[in-house]
Design a protein that fits this description.
The structure is a homodimer. With about 200 residues, chain A is mostly helical. Chain A contains eleven helices and no strands. At the A-B interface, helix 7, helix 10 and helix 11 of A face helix 7, helix 10 and helix 11 of B. The structure holds a DNA duplex (30 and 30 nucleotides).
Chain lengths: ~200, ~200
DNA sequence: CCACTCATGTACCACTTGGTACATGAACCA
DNA sequence: TGGTTCATGTACCAAGTGGTACATGAGTGG
């Protein structure tokens, strides 16, 4: 998700610059309930410019949601073959908390049908599963179907624990819980470590 | 969470009646970005009444968040000593999806600091852990500290999978993933089933 | 019957909202 | 130089916002 931060530094066209600034603002204190004027003031422009470059308020929100979603995908793309513990170290880094707050804010808005966020839901699960399933399959020697189940569980655990982390701030405690899950998964990969499932 | 539905039927005082109606509305299509007048129209009253009975818009939102949170706690209270699979059957029931969408909507809003939702975060984790840890401790013979770690993981898995479920609607697929987690946990309770952790 | 409280409706307030009209400036190309 | 395009600022609009003032019932206890 830290591509977003990077993105904020490489922007030439005004629209890109505004989008990057809006994204940065979105990560600090939310964006969904800001007015165009509030947002414009916060990022040093006028609401006129936001409308000029994004057409409408919804166009702006859509663009932001899309950018977040794109940053996500970029993040996923480079996750292949990394180890679970390092992954958690990465995602639980306080530097990423603002981006993750924004992610869950948009997720929540999308769940209640806010316009411009539909794409969010359809890309919330599958791309992540597809991104990490191959690594699991390769490293644990699981068939594709099982690896996808494992990947889906890993995504859920990570998100659930991130919700915990963002609510409590207790990085150490949550990390300990994550470590427990990883040991389960590792032992589960060796099918003799627990009773084999017939599902 | 289905206490909320129940709550909607037992309301005599006008404030309670309005709150129940607002809650019901909140579960169908969100509430955070509705105006008082929109909401009033949707639940068959006037924005004047909402202000009269809740003092302000924020008072209303706070009351709704509090009610959701209270319903949560009520739900938690009767979770003791229930089995994980039954728990998942319960939470994944499509009847509860609206309530869960509302839960995640409020969670997201609380994460970005929306006023009136602070209580949400402070009660998002600990009460749940405290509610189910004793059952885990008892049934698996774990010391309290370990049982709380397990409980925290269980809460995270459930929420992560609910996010998946609400985004995809794929109840069967997500249930299968949950089943995988349950088997991990069950084997983990027997400490010889995986290498013992020294954390 | 009167006084009082609770609930509700009507009308209004100042302010903000998303969006538009229009002028202006800067850059570039003829 | 003049025309054209992109970016931006100023001013405005109708509509909607949260909130308030005030009148009016409905019910209740004296």
């Amino acid at each position: 998700m830290n591509q977003m931060v990077h993105l904020a530094m490489t922007a030439s066209q005004p629209r890109e610059r505004l989008l990057a600034a809006a994204l940065e603002q979105a990560m600090h204190g939310g964006i969904a309930d800001m007015s165009l004027r509030e947002l414009a003031r916060a990022i040093g422009t006028s609401h006129r410019m936001l409308l000029y470059h994004f057409g409408s308020r919804e166009g702006l929100l859509t663009a932001v949601a899309f950018a977040v979603e794109e940053a996500q995908r970029a993040e996923v793309a480079q996750l292949v073959a990394v180890d679970a513990r390092r992954l958690w170290q990465h995602f639980s880094d306080p530097l990423l908390w603002p981006a993750e707050r924004l992610f869950f804010e948009l997720y929540g808005q999308a769940l209640v049908g806010r316009p411009g966020t539909e794409e969010f839901l359809s890309n919330a699960i599958e791309p992540w599963v597809s991104a990490i399933a191959p690594a699991i399959s390769r490293e644990a020697g699981l068939d594709e179907r099982t690896a996808r189940l494992e990947a889906r569980l890993a995504v859920a655990v990570t998100r659930g624990l991130l919700l915990d982390l963002l609510a409590t701030g207790d990085r150490q405690g949550v990390t300990e819980v994550f470590e427990r899950y990883v040991r389960y998964a590792e032992s589960g990969y060796r099918p003799d470590a627990h009773q084999p499932g017939q599902s």
